[in-house]
Amino acid sequence: MEFHATSEEVLAGRVCDVYFRRTVEILKARGLRKRVVAEVTAKSLPESWPWALLVGIEECAEVLSGLPVLSRSLPEGSVFYPWEPVLTIEGCYEEFAEYETTLLGLLCQASGVATCASRCRKAADGRSVLSFGARRAHPMVAPMVERAAYVAGCDGVSTVLAAEKLGIPPSGTMPHSLALVMGSTVEAARAFDEVIDQDVPRIALVDTFGDEKFEAVAAAEALGGRLAGVRLDTPGSRRGDLRRIAEEVRWELDLRGFQEVKIFVSGGINEYKILELNDFADGYGVGTRISAAPTVDFAMDIVEVDGLPVAKRGMASGRKALLGCRSCRARLVAPAALAPAKCHCGGALESLVKPLTGDGKRTGDPPTIARIRERAISQAAELSLEP
Ligand code: PCP
Predict the structure, then answer these.
(1) How many other CB atoms are found less than 10 A from the CB of residue 28?
(2) Ligand 1 atom closest to Cα of 136?
(3) Start-end of CATH 3.20.20.70 domains in the chain
(4) CA 136 to ligand 1 center in whole angstroms
(5) What is the pLDDT of residues 259-278, one digit of tens each?
(6) How far is the CA of 285 from the centre of ligand 1 (A)?
C-alpha cells in the first residue's frame, strides 16, 4: 500500500495543501517574517450537535513540538462548543503555515468519531457500547479511529491491534461466517465454547439461519449457564421492528430460565436506535456511526499579525481567552486583553486552555489514555444529546 503518509512525512509537513507551500515561498521571497496568532475553531457542529469532544490534540502536540512555535489547547478529551478556540498557535507564520492541513486533519476526523462514540455511550445509559467499525475505515487509520472511540467512552474496541495499543483486551463476538461454516448457530456456539479462551464471554450471533428467538433459545440450551449473551445483527431485509424482536428474545429466554443471558444488538446502530432498544438490549456494537462519523469542521484562522488584531470577515480578531467558571460552570470566550477575572455569578474564571508546546518541545507530560478517557466521560456525563 503506497497511498498513505508515514509519520515521518506527516511530521515533515508533506501532507500540506499546496497553497500553503506557495504562501511560504512568497513570504520567504519577500523576506516577510510575520509573527502571527492563529486559532482553531469550529464555527458549527455536524447535525447541530450541541457539543463535541476534542480528540487529536496529542497528535497535534507531536507535530507542534517539532516547530519553533508556542501552542495552547483545551486538553484532549475535553468537551467544546462552536466558536471556542480549542488550539492556539503563536509564532512566525512561515514556520507552521504548511502544517495547517495536518493539524486540522488530526482534529476533524478524530473529534467526530469521539463525539459519536460519546453520544452512543450517553444514549446507552450504562449499557455497554463496543466500537465495531474498524471495517468502515482504511486499516492504516483504524487504530486511530478506535482510540478516539475508546477515549470518548466506548467500553471496548474490536480490532486486535487497536486493543493492543490501548492496553485492553479486544472485544467481539462471532461473525456470521462461523455459523455458516459450522452449519448451524448451535454448532458455532459449541465450537466457540470449546475452543476459545474461557475468559472470553460466550456471545452467540443468533440471526444467521432462523428466527432470532428460536436461535437464541437453542444457543442457551446448548451452552446452558455458559452462554453470556446473544447478539442480534438482523439484516435489513428482515429487520422490521428490531425492538419487538429483542423483546421476544428476552421473553423466550426468561421464560426458560435464561434471565442471565444478555442481549446485544449491532448493525446500523446509532444513538437514536439505542434509545429505542434500551428496554431490551444490554449492550451494542456500533460500527459505521462511530468510525464513519461526520468530521468536525474545524478551521484555522489568523487573528493577530505582528501584535495587531486582524481577522477575515466572519471571524473576531485578536487572540482570545477561553474561560470557565469554577462556580456555575459557565464558559466564556473573551478578548485575551480584556479577559474578566470574575464570572457574572461572582465565581472565579479560569483559563480552560493549557500550554501544549513551546521551545520545540511538549509542555508537561502527555496525559495517559486513562486520563483522557476519564476527562471525556466525566465532562460529557453532564450534557444532553439534544440542544
Ligand atoms: C456487521 C458486523 C459489525 C456490525 C454489523 C457493524 O455485521 O457484525 O460488527 O455494523 P454497522 O457498521 O452498521 O454499525 P455483518 O456485516 O453482517 O458482518 P459479520 O457477519 O461479520 O457480523
Answers:
(1) 11
(2) 12
(3) 172-282
(4) 10
(5) 999 999 999 999 999 999 99
(6) 8
Centroid of ligand 1 to alpha carbon of 237 (angstroms): 14
**Cβ partners under 8 Å of residue 93, min gap 6:** 27, 34, 35, 36, 38, 302
**pLDDT tens digit sequence for 299-357:** 999 999 999 999 999 999 999 999 999 999 999 999 999 999 999 999 999 999 999 99
What CA–CA distance (Å, rounded) separates 61 from 73? 9
* Residues in a beta bridge with 358: 361
Distance CA 294, CA 383 (A): 20
Pocket perturbation via mutation, ligand 1, pick of 242, 266, 270, 274 by most ligand atoms within 8 A of CB: 266
CATH 3.20.140.10 in the chain, residues?
7-112+294-380
CATH superfamily, with its number, for domain 172-282: Aldolase class I (3.20.20.70)
Q: Whose alpha carbon is nearest atom 21 of ligand 1?
A: 175
Distance 159 CA to ligand 1 centre (A): 13
- Identify the residue whose C-alpha is closest to ligand 1 atom 2: 267
Tell me the C-alpha distance between 112 and 324, whole Å. Answer: 23
8 A C-beta contact, residue 146 and residue 290: no
- C-alpha cell of residue 20: 500553503
Q: Are 34 and 133 in contact (CB under 8 A)?
A: no
Count of residues in the chain: 387
Question: Edge to edge, what strands does the sheet with 229-232 contain?
Answer: 156-157, 128-131, 283-286, 262-266, 229-232, 203-205
What is the pLDDT averaged over residues 122-147?
A: 97
Identity (one letter) of the amino acid at 307? G
Residue whose Cα lies nearest atom 7 of ligand 1: it is: 267
Q: Could you give the CA distance from residue 256 to residue 247 in angstroms, rounded to a whole number?
A: 14
Using an 8 Å Cβ cutoff, are 85 and 71 in contact?
Answer: no
CB atoms inside a 10 Å sphere around CB 385: 16
- C-alpha cell of 79? 468537551
Pocket of ligand 1 (CB under 6 A): 132-133, 136, 175-176, 233, 266-269, 285-289
Ligand 1 nearest atom to the CA of residue 174, by list position: 22
Alpha-carbon distance of 281 to 288, in angstroms, equals: 19
Task: Specify the CATH superfamily of domain 7-112+294-380.
Answer: nicotinate phosphoribosyltransferase (3.20.140.10)
Residue nearest ligand 1's atom 4 by CA: 267
